[in-house]
Design goal:
21 helices, 434 Repressor (Amino-terminal Domain), Rossmann fold, alpha/beta
């Protein structure tokens, strides 16, 4: 996400590299390029002007320290301003009442139903008892879609297919959720156009009747500046509590994320970065600013790892590594855990300094399939003792996995190198292991 914006801001700040000091002339030039990058990314022009004026003013008021270059200083100032622009800090979801009712609103095609399922899964992972309510009475197959999603995430869906009164369905869903002891009820509503007065009245009536603890506005970030204008119109009618940005994994310029808080004065609470049900993240302005400036997002990466990894499995694996008993069964298990963490390119982009390096590379979940296929083509004994693999066994594995003997050999070599590194770490050879990982240290 934000690849083009990141590239252009990075290019603008590079203009200051090699400069011995900050001056009005070099700051003006750099700030002009940052403003152009923001506008190109579909950020509201007034917002872009305000934030770059602030960057310029703060930069000119700073004395450059000996240990800090002008480029580094401007990166820090830009990071602070982007963080402030997007809200400063993340805001929690308010879940009050029994059940707590969350009303989902938005335009047609913005991804409300998919988000409802992702949000239900997210809350369920936190130990909440969740129910979904199908209140889209207009779109064909909307109820069926929500039921399929509900089954995927293991959450019950309340629906009345013959009823064409969204308010009555929602009220009945609240009663059903209360009777079943559910802690959260998520109301999936029909998509509507801001100019459709009848539909806007319906969503307004839903809010008035239900008095939800949280009303979320779901917006497709690919619609750019129109997303901000639509959010403004919806907010005037609904006074929603927060925004959800969907499709941030697509070919989006990202301007909505940077403008929406400033224009609507409502926080962005979640971002959706893919079609899978686990592709949902809490929105953190500081972390997003770090990503935009190519500084990575290690905190989010660690959080994903904590969600994906089983604590008991990790303990057993650690013990096997210490005893140098790590085998291909363990390796395959780790691949499965990594896949749970989300899109591979997105994960790699969270590592500081790596995002720019991989932006044009084709990295997807299919990258791991040949490795998995090779391991699954091994016998139990071969996985546990890969040293028994001779020429004929390798040929059989290559045929069974649809790969080549060369690819099998490459995987075996990489696995062997990894085991050697683990062995060195266990013997206290941390420096030697790090040197082995560093291609420039040889």
């Amino acid at each position: 996400m934000f690849d083009n914006l990141s590239l252009k801001i990075d290019k603008a700040i590079k203009n200051l590299k090699g400069q011995g000091s900050i001056s009005e002339i070099n700051v003006a030039s750099t700030v002009k390029e940052i403003r152009r990058a923001l506008v190109d990314a579909d950020v509201n022009f007034k917002v872009a002007k305000d934030v770059t004026d602030e960057i310029r003013q703060k930069a000119l008021g700073q004395n450059v320290l000996t240990a800090v270059s002008p480029g580094q200083l401007l990166t820090k100032i830009t990071n602070d301003e982007l963080t402030r622009l997007m809200g400063g800090q993340n805001e929690d979801i308010k879940l009050t009442g029994s059940p707590a009712v969350v009303l989902i609103s938005g335009l047609q095609g913005s991804g409300k139903t998919t988000f409802s399922g992702k949000f239900a899964r997210y809350l369920k992972s936190q130990g909440k008892q969740v129910m979904l309510a199908a209140c889209d009475i207009y779109r064909p197959a909307a109820i069926d879609q929500l039921k399929v999603i509900g089954e995927q995430v293991g959450v019950e869906v309340y629906a009345e297919p013959e009823n064409k009164d969204a308010v009555k369905i929602a009220k009945a869903a609240v009663k059903a959720a209360k009777d079943q002891g559910k802690s959260v009820l998520i109301i999936d509503t029909a998509g509507r156009l801001a100019v459709d007065e009848e539909m806007m009245n319906e969503i307004a009536n839903l809010k008035k009747t239900l008095n939800p603890s949280e009303t979320l506005f779901v917006v497709d970030s690919m619609t750019g500046q129109d997303a901000v204008n639509t959010a403004k119109t919806f907010n005037e009618r609904l006074d929603f509590d927060g925004v959800v940005l969907t499709k941030l994994d697509g070919d989006t310029r990202g301007g909505a994320a940077l403008s929406i808080r400033q224009v609507v004065d409502k926080p962005i609470k979640f971002i959706s970065t893919g079609e899978k049900m686990d592709a949902l993240e809490r929105f953190h302005p500081d972390r997003m600013a770090n990503r935009i400036l190519g500084m990575g997002d290690v905190v989010s990466l660690v959080e994903r790892a904590q969600q994906a990894y089983d604590e008991e499995e990790a303990r057993i694996l650690s013990k096997k590594i210490r005893k140098n008993q790590f085998d291909f069964n363990d390796f395959l298990s780790q691949l499965q855990q990594i896949k749970k963490m989300g899109n591979l390119k997105d994960l790699v982009g969270m590592i500081p300094g790596v995002g720019k390096m991989v932006k044009d590379m084709d990295i997807d979940d299919d990258s791991l399939k040949p490795i998995e296929a090779i391991i699954r083509s091994m016998t139990v004994g071969e996985r546990e003792s890969p040293e028994i693999l001779n020429g004929s066994r390798k040929k059989r594995i290559a045929t069974g996995s649809g790969t080549t003997v060369t690819e099998v050999n490459n995987l075996l070599k990489q696995f062997g190198d990894m085991k050697k590194m683990m062995k060195m770490m266990n013997k206290g050879g941390g420096k030697r292991a790090l040197s082995a990982m560093n291609p420039f240290g040889r």
